Amino acid sequence: MNEGTRDTDDSRLRVRAVLHAQFTLLLAVLIVCAGIGGAAAYTAHVDPGTETVERTVTSWSVASEHVHSADVVRDSPVFDQGDTLTDRNTYFATVAPVLDVSLEASYQAPTAENVTVETASVLVLRNAAEGTVYWEDRETLASRTATDVEPGETVRTNFTVNVSALGQRIDRIQSDLGSAPGETEALVVSRVTVDGEVAGESVEHVQPLELAITPGGDTYAVEGAGGQSEPINRTVTEQVERSYGPVRSVGGPLLFLVGVAGSGALVYARRERRLELTPAERAWLDYRDDRSEYAEWIPRVELPADLAGSSDGRAESLADLVDFAIDNDVGVVEDPTTGRYHALVGDRLY
Q1: Angstrom distance (rounded) from CA 67 to CA 32
Q2: How many whole angstroms separate alpha carbon 163 and alpha carbon 70?
Q3: How far apart are CA 227 and CA 5, in angstroms?
Q4: Which end of the chain, N or C, is less surrounded by CB atoms within 10 Å?
Q5: Pick from 96, 94, 75, 76: which is nearest to 84 by CA?
Q6: C-alpha span between 43 and 186 (Å, rounded)
């Protein structure tokens, strides 16, 4: 038998010895594992239960925008009187000095009752720099209140801004003040208010928006006319089925199977007397333990022919022989031919 096969057999015998000696403890551990695994598997796959979670949902939304255009008031080489210039970044003040603006507002919601949409637009002239307003002038342009507005219905509020007169007004104010420390700007500041029962809730939502008008002599620029849509979010609380990670959903059933199969196999092996070692097997393990313990003190030496096969005494175990040799201040050798261990004391071989 080679050393590898011998070590494998030793390991099997030692496992059997441990299983036999610790049978009760190991059986209890396996039963507990089966119980824990079964409970985890039942919770994960049969009755996971529920948990309370919060999530953010978009219940409704508000949209508004400034739509602008300007009518041509006199003929020119490129425009005819009565033409309408629409949604441009730059208009010609010489042929289209009046800017027509329409504030359009709407909302989207699954349900709505008694909804009122209010709009208000103000022309603001001011001179400011780095957050400091040096002067400001306001003029109300238009306002409107629409009742019983349905989802998707557009509320329009129309007004005009005479940009030529606006430029003259700015020049007059600055001439009266004598200086302009900051930058002068003209803004159409609008506000859309939605009030009512929307998506099952009582709401009063305000959405501001601005339209910048910059006079520049023969032309004027319009900026910020893009529409904006604002979702209105709310947090809802609901009960959902609890979910578990792989530790419980996979590990639970696996632990249950290991516990059940292991305890069954352990009981079967005990009943069939496959765990208890025979006296010869126990003796063999004792010998292997002794051989491992004294390995560095036992050389392998082939005995002379006149000594091979002879013996004047026999010890019950390798440990006894080693103790005997130590007491007599001699060593123990292993005969590689016979596999026997010998101690030579005087002219006697043990």
Answers
A1: 74
A2: 10
A3: 84
A4: N
A5: 96
A6: 67
